[in-house]
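Appendix C reproduces, verbatim, an entry submitted by the partner laboratory led by Prof. M.T., so that reviewers can inspect both the input and the predicted structure.
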Amino acid sequence: MADPVAESFEIDVDVDNGTVTLTGKVDSLTESNVAERVAEGVKGVVDVKNKLDYAFTADRPDLDIKRDIEYRLKTDASIDSGLITVTVNDGKVTLAGSVGSALEKTEAQGEAWIVPGVTSVTNQLDVEWWIDGDTADWSDAWTDQDMRKAIENALITDPRVTSFDVITTVEDGVASLTGTVDNLQAKRAAEEEARDVLGVWRVKNYLRVRPNVSRTDAEIAADVREALRRDPYVDRYEIAVSAYNGKVYLTGDVDSLYMKNQAEQAAAGVRGVVEIQNNLGIDLTYTTKTDEEIKDDIKSQLWWSPFVDSDDISVEVHSGVATLMGSVEDWDELRAAKENAKEGGATSVISKLDVENGFGVD
């Protein structure tokens, strides 16, 4: 109910020993995934069983789904779709071919999931270190109008934004967003979608946040404090919250940039917040965590990271020193995993990860 996107979903929640079961009906698989992420972000949750049903307003032919996925892959600036093939059978999508990084592999799967009509995605993409990452989709024929169309298409399928009338213009690769949304998450999501579009090098976000219900600053500040308390990452920090005319001010100390950003993200999900001034300082000596706490935080960092396949990595922590074992696709994934370990609170990191598309062990 506290999430500005998921609040409208018809969802029942049951909890048994920390395992959450979600039942009910939503309009799309994307909305189902949004609800699951909200549940996973609550302190104390150890597992989420997503049994939500979703129904499309009309059956979509496989060819339409295929074309939509190919279009989204082509227009995503972080994906080189030239070596990706898409097949669809009864709404079941298979991605095959090659990409240049673990991030591209994850991004491609995300683009497929968001297309209406998709019931499952099998990601068979191989990460090949020799792919240089320069997109093969770019050409002089890709115009400002093509970028505008791609942004509008992305906004329509994003449940965080789709209900708002966002006006998009693009001039010389600079995208401008105007209009009104009723929550800060929607404003940020619209900018995120625009930045991901091929050819866009700058986004001017003029969207105004105008909550659809009147809330006092005291109510907003109280809900932000509750959101921070509920968040499994930042609940242990003493963060002071104040609000004035819907603008929220965060002050205090946390022990990493990740935690600072996580606190801001939690605050942005509160209804009535129109802007955030994040004055949190980063104090590496702020708190001492046990090895088990560090291990849990590192595993969470790896799980949430779009750059890392956490299923292939195991973690051990002794006296604050983290050891990473398993395998990664390439050197970029290895560097991301080590950075995640530092963000999780490790004083130093020892990598025993095998690099499958590289040479030797770092």
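The mean pLDDT is 85. Additional entries are available on request from the coordinating office.
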